[in-house]
Amino acid sequence: MVKLILVAGARPNFMKIAPLMHALKDHKSIQPILVHTGQHYDVKMSGQFFEELNIPNPDINLEVGSASHAVQTARIMEGFEQVCLKENPDYVLVVGDVNSTAACTLVASKLGIKTIHYEAGLRSNDRTMPEEINRLVTDAISDVFITTSIDADENLLHEGIPVEKIHMLGNLMIDSLVAQLPKAKATKLNFKLLNRDKPIELGKDFQSGQYGVLTFHRPGNVDEKESLTKLVHLWGEISEQIPLVFPVHPRTYKNILQFGLQSVIESYPKLFFIEPLGYLQFIHLVSNSSFALTDSGGIQEETTYLNIPCLTVRPNTERPVTVWEGSNKLIKTEEIVHEVQLIIQGKGKHGTIPKYWDGQSAERIINMIEGISK
Ligand code: UD1
User: Fold this and answer.
1) Looking at the predicted structure, is the pLDDT value of residue 250 above 90?
2) pTM of the prediction?
3) What fold characterizes domain 2-171+358-373?
4) Nearest CA to ligand 1 atom 3
5) CATH fold for domain 179-344
6) 10 within ligand 1 shell (Cβ under 6 A)
């Protein structure tokens, strides 16, 4: 029996881990152990994803919580070392690019445990992003590299990773999307405005196919007063042309309150700030929208699969396949209003679905792990 520890820590990890846990249920030769680092801990950022994606309760929760990067990473390392020493797994599998990803890879590789990185090789080439540092650290010491697109393979080869260690097997986030889309579309959109007890209804306050979904949480966009103030005013301006629904990330909301921007938001009746949504309501919201305006990584992929125009407000992306093949466009803050106008006129970007983004990635990944562990 191969003992495999799977690590999940933050919200975008959960939809990548879910299809693997399902494929490993009652598996004959691989015994999964699920470790939650507790990097995200709120019901809205963690618990409801486990429930809706039907992920079994973690075998171990390190409960590290929020802290500075160094403290959070250190706490994860300390806790995860004990887990590895106790369980003595054959492999540790990490996903994505969050602090939990880098921390657990570092611990396992120093204990001589083989590490597998799913979503290896993505590069924004922007070292001001904490995620880019996590990607570089993780890929520098991993043993097995699972990629989601060919640009990632090229990046790894360029960094000297031998070709036989790289496996392009598709996109687990799309596995979750394919599996849950029918259920998501049947889930009622039911939310209230953040900090105001006002219910917002689809069909009344905003109409199917005639609204945009907003998500912003990158430190580069939301941590400075000047850039966040500029963005809030732009969102308001756009909402006067087409309603915007924003399930707000806690990081962003904390800053909105701190910079005194709540009154600006309240002055725009069609700028709907709501609590973070669970997976099913969020996917329903996106799949029904006319566009997404975002700085997230995962949403660039989900909109590419759904072929919905996505405007990514960042100078770079680690997911260029969503631009050259999909419906994603990288834009500057000053271009937001013009780009949204193009979409309203029916001139939004559409594309095709990248190779292996087909709902079968977990099966390919488990087959590969079985193969290498023989
Ligand atoms: C983290 C990831 C980022 C990912 C994002 C998705 C890193 C370096 N960053 O960023 O790559 O895109 O998750 O959400 O790993 N908070 C809560 N409840 C929670 C978790 C956090 O309220 O359950 C608040 C805390 O005040 C915390 C802040 O959100 O300080 C930011 O959380 P943190 O985990 O530090 O980073 P994210 O911005 O979420």
Assistant:
1) yes
2) 0.96
3) Rossmann fold (3.40.50)
4) 98
5) Rossmann fold (3.40.50)
6) yes
